[in-house]
Design goal:
Shape of chain A: elongated
Strand content of chain B: under 5%
Structural class of chain B: mainly alpha
Low-confidence stretches of chain B: 91-103
CATH class of the largest domain in chain A: Mainly Beta
CATH superfamily of the largest domain in chain B: Winged helix-like DNA-binding domain superfamily/Winged helix DNA-binding domain
CATH architecture of the largest domain in chain B: Orthogonal Bundle
Strand content of chain A: 35-45%
Number of helices of chain B: 10
CATH architecture of the largest domain in chain A: Beta Barrel
Largest interface: A-B, 40 and 50 residues
Oligomer: heterodimer
Number of strands of chain A: 21
Distance between the termini of chain B: 56 Å
Number of domains of chain B: 2
Number of domains of chain A: 2
Order of helices and strands of chain B: HHHHHHHHHH
Chain lengths: 455, 191
């Protein structure tokens, strides 16, 4: 703006002076919007974390609903019962399975029991029924599988079942014995490389062939939340503001001024585990924590709430002045407020299988959790411990939590259920370093979860 | 907290410093916006947009001039853009041509409150008000105003003359300044 000769006359000068004296106070909404616009990283972070959580949940859901998702699906068709072996077998793809319900049931049973285990060692089946051959991944059949080959004489077969690979249309013959409980992969022609019986024993062995180091878990922990407060240490306050008109309680324990009744919260999260050895696993994941505590306070006519601040920028001593919403001491109008904290964390830790083998196991775990505070509406205690006020700028966005847990696990089917106590401690204060009162949140509760191996 | 510390904190995107700056200047800036705006809600919208610009363009501030003046210029431009966007002032700025009004040399008694003056300014049609705000209160030249509002410089001059005449009439009607007759009587009494 170029310099204009201001105030051409007295009227303009007075008009400007009067207008400049006028002030208006904007509503709280304006600052909220400004703050939100300036700190959009938080929204990006929340969106990113939500995507990750959604990814874990989708993975978990997929594994639960369709455990063989990453394996090939096989369709079971039934070849004619007691069909004589012949080099000139009919084309199996034209076979109608509905004509043999009893055999089909047996086949279904067999497939239910063994499909997942049978299919895994094979990567493709070539040719028609006459020259069907099974090709093992890696072109070599492991010894424990080989040992099972050919244990069932051909004349024991009561039915031949064709496993048809979904999508590819290729087929492989599978045979049932008379009880229909054991499925046997048999060569239909002499040129087939091997026939493999997949019994209960071999099914277990086949399991071990897989690289099952990864698993996932989902858990929820109802928690009781409390906090530890360290009062303002007068000698730690910057000397330049020790004479400031701010009342600082020098000797009284701050914990005597506040209500520390635990309140209920919860943790909800998911982890991916990587098995380092039989006893140790690394795990990392995402966790949403809702924790809170009660504030017993009393309504008042909005007192001034002052908080002495430690040095802000450089060595500039400062204080925070705000309008209190409630007082800690007053015989009238008791009110129950609560401070709520919504945190998104990324726990990274280790799990130790202390005891147990098979179904029942006992585990210990520990983790560290970089955390991000999602809300900024917690109350802050004034320096004289007399009032509460909201000051979002004083809350620490990023924090660290440490967690520990002990749980017993019990395996039912493919799912391992976990139950045991947990504790979570917030390492850094809820408030920034510039606010001299230190508050560390602590949650303890019961953790209920389940985990499943990723195959 | 000193202004220097606040500015440094704002440059580092510290929320505490930003809030401090906001609390320090928002009352005055909202009054600026309110003089331009149609109502308080619009004024708060302008204030919000203006402060976002202030924080985002903080690095462009050179400590040569007063910081308040820098913020104020951003606010004024934000208000003008807001008015243009909402097409709130074109109708009166473009259509009403100033008559050859005679500008009186009145003075505003010190007893008159700031709010009364602002209320009177807000009674002007929005086009007049905008030109009066820019010229008489914010100190822009007619050439600058013509560029800001996309009008002729002569239009800005005539709009201002007319706006000032109307404002004086309003002030007289509200007995905030003496009317011509009272003034004559007073002068006679002095003589």
């Amino acid at each position: 703006m170029k310099e204009r000769i201001f105030f051409d006359d007295e009227f303009e000068k007075q008009l400007r002076e009067k207008s400049d004296q006028f002030k208006m106070y904007p509503s709280d909404k304006v600052w909220s919007e400004v703050h939100r616009s300036l700190h959009t990283r938080r929204r990006g972070f929340v969106a990113g974390m939500s995507l990750l959580v959604a990814g874990i949940l989708i993975l978990a859901g997929t594994q639960l609903i369709a455990p063989s998702h990453n394996s090939r699906h096989l369709q079971v068709a039934v070849k004619t019962a007691l069909q004589p072996e012949s080099a000139s077998s009919p084309d199996l793809s034209a076979f109608n399975p509905t004509a043999f319900p009893s055999i089909q049931n047996a086949a279904n049973r067999a497939s239910r029991n063994h499909t997942q285990n049978i299919k895994s060692p094979f990567i493709s089946f070539r040719g028609s029924a006459e020259n069907a051959s099974a090709v093992y991944a890696g072109n070599e059949i492991p010894a424990q599988v080989k040992s099972e080959i050919g244990t069932v004489p051909k004349n024991d077969r009561s039915a031949n079942i064709v496993l048809k690979e979904m999508g590819s249309g290729s087929t492989v013959p599978l045979s049932l014995n008379q009880q229909g409980t054991n499925a046997v992969l048999l060569p239909e022609t002499p040129d087939v490389a091997a026939a493999i019986e997949v019994s209960e024993k071999s099914a277990t062995q086949t399991h071990l062939l897989h690289n099952e180091r990864f698993s996932w878990e989902i858990y929820i922990s109802p928690t009781l939340n409390t906090r530890h407060l360290d009062g303002i240490e007068y000698q730690n306050i910057n000397p330049s503001i020790q004479n400031a008109p701010i009342t600082v309680v020098r000797f009284a324990d701050v914990n005597g001024f506040v209500d520390k009744t635990p309140a209920m919260g919860y943790d909800l999260g998911g982890n991916i585990l990587y098995r380092l050895s039989n006893n140790f696993s690394l795990k990392a994941g995402l966790q949403f924590s809702f924790s809170r505590y009660y504030i017993k306070a009393y309504n008042s006519n909005r007192p001034q709430a002052s908080a002495a601040l430690n040095s802000y920028f450089g060595y500039i001593a400062d204080s925070l002045a705000n309008t209190g919403i409630s007082r800690t001491i007053n015989p009238k109008n008791p009110q129950h407020y609560q401070n709520n904290f919504y945190q998104l964390s990324m726990p990274v830790g280790i799990e130790w299988k202390v005891a147990g083998r098979g179904r029942l196991e006992f585990h210990l775990g520990a983790n560290i959790q970089p955390s991000y505070l999602l809300n900024r509406d917690a109350y802050l205690l004034s320096s004289d411990y007399s009032s509460y006020s909201k000051e979002p700028a004083m809350l620490r966005k990023w924090n660290f939590n440490a967690g520990a847990e002990a749980f017993i696990s019990y395996r039912v089917g493919g799912i391992r259920w976990e139950l045991g106590p947990m504790v979570r401690y917030q390492i850094l204060s809820t408030y920034k370093n510039s606010y001299p009162l230190k508050e560390n949140l602590m949650n303890y509760g019961l953790r209920l979860g389940f985990s499943k191996t990723i195959r | 907290m000193t202004e220097e510390a606040i500015l440094q904190g704002c440059l580092k995107n510290h929320a505490a410093a930003q809030r401090e700056l906001y609390q320090r200047y928002s009352p005055k800036m909202l009054a600026v916006c309110f003089r331009f705006a149609h109502n308080r809600e619009d004024a708060e919208d302008m204030l919000q947009d203006g402060f976002i610009k202030v924080f985002l363009q903080m690095h462009t501030f050179q400590s040569k001039g007063a910081f308040e003046g820098w913020i104020r210029r951003i606010m004024v431009h934000t208000c003008i853009n807001h008015l243009k966007k909402n097409k709130r002032f074109n109708e009166s700025v473009d259509l009403i041509q100033a008559s050859s009004a005679q500008v009186r040399e009145e003075s505003i008694p010190s007893i008159v409150q700031a709010k009364q003056i602002v209320d009177c300014i807000r009674l002007l049609p929005i086009g007049y008000r905008t030109v009066l705000n820019l010229y008489a209160i914010e100190g822009y030249s007619h050439k600058e105003i013509s560029g800001m509002l996309d009008i002729e410089e002569s239009t800005s001059r005539s709009q201002y003359t007319r706006a000032r005449q109307m404002l004086e009439d309003i002030l007289i009607r509200r007995n905030l300044i003496p009317g011509p007759r009272e003034r004559t009587d007073r002068l006679t009494a002095i003589q």
